[in-house]
Each structure stands twice: as C-alpha cells, then as structure tokens.
Amino acid sequence: MSGGSERAFTLLGGRVAMAATPRGLKPTTDAVMLAAAVEAGPGARVLDAGCGAGAVGLCLLARSPGLRVTGIDSEPEMVRLARRNVSRNPFAAGMAVERGDLRRAAGAAGPYDVAATNPPYLEPRSGRPPPDPLRAAATIETMALRDWIGACLRRLRPGGLFVLIHRPERMPEILRALDTVAGRAMRLDLRAKAASGAPERVLVKAVKGAAGDGIATAPPLVLHDDAGRYTAEAEAVLRHGRALRWM
C-alpha cells in the first residue's frame, strides 16, 4: 500500500487514488490481497460484498479494466465514499456502488460470475466493540459468518467463483458454510514472516455447485523478510498489481 497524506492516499503503487477516509478507516493490505486472489476474465460480473471504501473493486479494475464490478455496503457513509473513489479513478467508470443489506434478496441481486468479500472479522462476543459506530460496523459481525457466505453464494451463477479473506481460526465455520454448496475449495495462507506459526490471514476460494469435499492448500505467501520489509513476492502484489498464484 502506498502512503499519502492522512486525507488522501493511493494503492497499488499510485495506480488507485483513494479519497479521504472517515475516522481513520483506511483499507488494509487485506483488500489488495483479496482483489489479487480473484480470477476473472473480461466482461465478468464481480460482486464486492461489504465493499467499504471500494478498494477491492478498484484494485480489480486497475488490473483488469474489462470487468464489471458492483460494490454493496450497508453503511451510507461508506457508500458515499466508495462512489467518490470511483469518480477519482477514470478506469473505474463502469463500477457501481449500491447501499444494501446482504440479507435482503433485492440487494445487488446478481447473478454474478465472482463474489469477493472481506467481511468483519470479529464475533460479537469477542470483546468490547469500538465506540465509533462506523469502526464497529467494519470490524464486528452483525451477521453470522455462515449467513454472510451463504448470501454471497446465492448471488453467484452456477459455476461462479467465491473468494474470501478472513482469520485462519474461522476456517471450520467457512468450510461448513461452503459444504454442499461450493466445491473445489482452495486456501492460501498469508504469513507475516517465513518463521511465523499461524498465518495472519487466509484466502479461500471455491466454485458454486462444484463437486469435491475438503480443501486443497496453495503455497503460502510470506509478507515480510527478517528485517520487516515486504518480500519481493508481496511487493509484486501490493505495489505492482500482480495476481496471486494459487498453485
């Protein structure tokens, strides 16, 4: 992620311009990694579920301008911000941002070729929520993870691709949500350093309606070297827009 001032910044080494963010809610490397995990050809319809400031869709379009991206978010302030960010990036003129609730059938109805999502990571019982309501909405679940995944899958066409980034300890729930609905699942771990124990984040992809139990594992991506700098592989994704390698 490239830095700017506190009121404007860029992603992908300056290719994606982002407007001012409310109360310090800047997109993290998770959004860039999620976009890099999406495999889609020109003309594909992509849903960014819980789009926030629009970083995932914008990073996707910076790499593949021929995609058609729809972002949906329930927070009106984030929807307004995402629309401003779309307007700041000429390559993203075809991206639409809607205010909507994933629980409602009418919200971003689809069907889509790809559903990508970076949902809130924390369960309501995991601790005291942040006092700021917008920050709480971005980090604390108001919808069970299984239901969130199910809502994304319902908006996919048969054979469509589902892609998620989340915390590795939630993998059992993720797999249960995918069970019988999507197959050919694969995970890719993001590790802080080569010697790290548990990964920082896990990316998961699966195909709606595909057969196959269990989950295959791709080689992990190591984010930092021993000196704390991004590895060359991480730099290629975060700065230069390279797609993640699943195999």
Question: Overview of this structure, please?
Answer:
The structure is a single chain. By secondary structure, the protein is of the alpha/beta class. It has a single domain (about 25-235), classed as Vaccinia Virus protein VP39 (Rossmann fold, 3-Layer(aba) Sandwich), CATH 3.40.50. It is about 25% helix and about 25% strand. The chain is built from 7 helices and 12 strands. It has helices at about 30-35, 55-65, 75-90, 135-140, 145-155, 170-180, 230-240, and strands spanning about 1-5, 10, 15-20, 45-50, 70-75, 95-100, 110-115, 155-165, 180-190, 200-210, 215, 220. Strands 4, 5, 6, 7, 8, 9, 10, 11 and 12 form a 9-stranded mixed beta sheet that branches. A hairpin with a 4-residue loop joins β2 (about 10) and β3. α1 packs across α2. The longest helix has 13 residues, at about 75-90. The protein is globular, with a radius of gyration of 17 Å. The model is unreliable at about 1-5 (pLDDT under 50).
CATH fold topology: Rossmann fold
Tertiary shape: globular
* CATH class category name: Alpha Beta
- State the secondary-structure class: alpha/beta
Query: What oligomeric state do the depicted chains represent?
Result: single chain
Q: Tell me the β content.
A: 25-35%
